[in-house]
Amino acid sequence: MTVAEMKPEIQLGERIAEGKTKVLYAVPDAELWPDGQLVYMVHKDAITAGDGAKRDVLVDKGELSCRTTSAVYQLLESLGIPTHYVATADARTMVVRQVDMIPIEWVARRIATGSYVRRTGVIEGTRFEDLMLEMFLKDDAKHDPLITREEAIENELCTDVEVDAALELTAAIFAILERAWDAQGIQLVDLKVEFGRTPQGLLLADVIDNDSWRLWPHGKRELMLDKQVYRDLPEATESALAGIRDRYVEVAERVERFYTQDVGEQVPA
Fold first, then answer.
1. What are the residue boundaries of the structural domains of the chain, listed by start?
2. Span 165-215, pLDDT tens digits
């Protein structure tokens, strides 16, 4: 469903939760959304780094995040990836299925950079022919530490079956998006995703926007289009933030071209 097919104004219900970059609200109109427990996800204009220690307002970031996530989720859904996405309600609001979020970030890496290089000593730019898959506990106070599947299961964050399913989906999602970006001459360096559980199984949840990945045009780090530019800023001046916004606009526009590309076959059920 597109924005044009929606009612001109939406009525937000009770606030359910709020994070650094989005707010969740109940969907009060059962007639408009008759297919179960749904929530509105409203994207904010906040851009953060360092587990929220660094924070600024990026003009229109909420709209750009909504555009990017909506286009990515629509592509993934069309290729068989189960997601919580239902529709785009307005310029910064999505309708999503309510899920029980697993407090883990699932990370896929094609190129070694950032924290992985600092943590392991692997040479910057090393390419992993087989994806490097990792799991991180979502806990800002602990700076999102790396965890093993055994720790995740022992601490009852998820089951053994859920770990296998999430890792398999993470690899499939990365493969689809890597092909899509490669068609535009851009290297998808790494990607972080999250999953929520439902009675029917896991769904890709939360967002995939320009905060979720690293993108290197022509494989060149110095041309990066993603949030790492903000992380690296010594000072968030008005002109610097404008430059970051330009990158977010470019990424949103590029993601919306994915449907015109051949990005691969549907993922087997």
1. 3-99, 101-236
2. 999 999 999 999 999 999 999 999 999 999 999 988 999 999 999 999 999
Of 124, 140, 172, nearest to 269 by C-alpha is 172
Domain 101-236 in CATH 1.25.10.10? The answer is: no
Answer whether 79's CB lies under 8 Å from 172's CB.
no
Alpha-carbon distance 211 to 160, whole Å?
Answer: 28
Stated pTM of the model? 0.92
- How many helical (H) and strand (E) elements, i.e. helices and strands, does the chain have? 6, 14
* Cα–chain center distance at 121: 27
71 contacts: CB under 8 Å, gap ≥ 6: 252, 255, 256, 258, 259
Inter-residue contact 210 to 226 (CB < 8 Å):
yes
Superfamily of domain 3-99: Phosphorylase Kinase; domain 1 (3.30.200.20)
φ, ψ at 267 (rounded to 5°): -70, 130
Q: Which residue has the tokens 């449907």?
A: 259
CA distance 223 to 182: 15
Contacts of 146 (CB under 8 A, 6+ apart): 119, 134, 135, 136
